[in-house]
Amino acid sequence: MTIFARDPDTGMAKWAYQMTPHDQWDYDGINEMILTDQNIGGKQRKMLVHFDRNGFGYTLDRETGELLVAEKYDPAVNWATKIDMEKNSKMYGRPLVDEKYAPGSKGENVNYTGICPAALGTKDQQPASYSPETGLFYVPTNHVCMDYEPFRVSYTAGQPYVGATLSMYPPKGESHMGNFIAWDATKGKIVWSNPEPFSVWSGALSTAGGVVFYGTLEGYLKAVDAKTGKELYKFKTPSGIIGNVTAYEHKGKQYVAVLSGVGGWAGIGLAAGLTDPHAGLGAVGGYAALSNYTSLGGTLTVFALPG
Q1: Mean pLDDT over the full length of the chain
Q2: Is there a domain that residue 306 lies in?
Q3: Which of 179, 173, 211, 213 is CA-nearest to residue 193?
Q4: Which is catalytic among the residues 9, 26, 52, 98?
């Protein structure tokens, strides 16, 4: 749950910041830290940008650990109303939790409904990308909520040890389960957002040519305009994409490659042949329709850029 900076010469921690104190949702903050130098509030800063599982995008000064920006990068996020940014407040830097969406706050065996995001987070391990050309971050996201009922469970070696029953679904009144967004980390604002039927579980690749690539769980490789998000090209690969799009050069020619092969948390039902809707912490039921759009596989698809 904590980002910390370590002095490589001494091994001592220099600063630390905790995103989700007393985590009750399984929002363990495993997401990458992207380092950029940008102007924020009229001052050039050495920044650390982190898109946490909990649905907040954080911008910190990486030298001092000062929290500069903390905003929701999916408007559906509701487990906390906001991050307290008042520096004189005792709650400075902490999430203001809505107990209606806080599992365990009313005891065991109580079903907490409509929590956003779901346990898989607004973003899981799929990495975001930064473009120095636009100054924006390109983020693959999950647009998913959950019902969460905690219960007491005894630990048995080798057996699942969750202590909760979960179900997953899109936010109320919506049908899509993912967005691919462009994010301004200096302001904490979504610049543009492209909805996707399922979670965007691939990594993003931004290029100097003003094009951003990403893959979808149905198996499409997509290229979009970095400034506007306009779709420029898409290609259906043999299976769902959870890998990272890669660009490379060989003998003076540029290529883009992506490995398709559905799986991961969102695709676990299809990949493992699971049918219980609560399996995979509710992902099996939430993504049951995925089998209508893609199938198992493992293929490297390579594209040569013209010119």
Answers
A1: 95
A2: no
A3: 179
A4: 26
